[in-house]
Structures are given as structure tokens and as C-alpha cells.
Amino acid sequence: MEKIYLICAVWIMLCSSCATVFSGTTDDVLFDSRPAGAAVYLDNHFLGRTPLRTRIPRTTRARYLTYELENHEPSTQLLRNRVNGITFINLLWWPGFVVDAVTGAICRIEYTSYYMELYPLPEGVAHPDSLRD
What we know:
It is a single chain. By secondary structure, the chain is α+β, with helices and mostly antiparallel strands. It has one domain (2-117). The chain has three helices and nine strands. It has helices at residues 2-14, 18-23, 94-103, and strands at residues 26-34, 39-42, 45-49, 52-57, 63-68, 75-79, 81-83, 107-109, 113-117. The strands form three sheets. Strands 3-2-5-6 form a four-stranded antiparallel sheet, with no helix packed on it. Strand 2 and strand 3 (45-49) form a beta hairpin. The longest helix is centred in the N-terminal third of the chain and has 13 residues, at 2-14. It is rod-shaped and about 80 Å long.
């Protein structure tokens, strides 16, 4: 009987923080725009220019993407999260659930690619804010 308890305890320990171990704490995301070359910002932090593929750290809070291109209207969209299904395994072992929540692995970014159509500013209209880079 002790052997069964030992096997169960080892199995539970191995399953702790499953989402962190099995799916990591970042998502590979593609950002694109038309026209290409737009600066992409995640919560006001510059990521690069479109087309751009990069790894984004997971978090439990919603974040905003902003696309900016000279002589075009800036556009913003919500970067949404969804629950990472692997997290439900941690319902058997609450310390693993806590680890996943702290590392952000409890959520995944909802989509693996984001696209934004940027529209030119009317001729003679200045951009409301100066471009950041």
C-alpha cells in the first residue's frame, strides 16, 4: 500500500505546474500590416516592424497592440488571452496552479497572428502624435 502512495505522490509532483512545463511561458506570434513596415508596439514597448514574428511573454492581463506608420492613421487592437487547457491538470495539485498563474502560463495569447490595415492620413493633415521612432 505504501508503494501505491509513493507512486501517486511522484505522479502528482511530476504534474505540478503542467502549463509552465509543457507549453512554456511565451507564444510565437506573427504581426503583419498593409502597408508593410509599420512599427508594432505592445503596451507602448516597441517590438519591431511588420512583417514581424516574435515571442510574446504570457500574462493574465489584457494588452494592447499599436501599429504606427508615417503618414498613416495609427491603429490599436486588443491582444486577448484565453485559458491554457493544460492548466486544468493542476486542479489536482494547487502549488502547480500557483506556479502557472505567477509565470503567466495559465493563459495563452488567443491568436497566433495579427493583421492591421493602415489608412493614409488625408493630405495636409498632420499626425496627432509624433512617431516614436
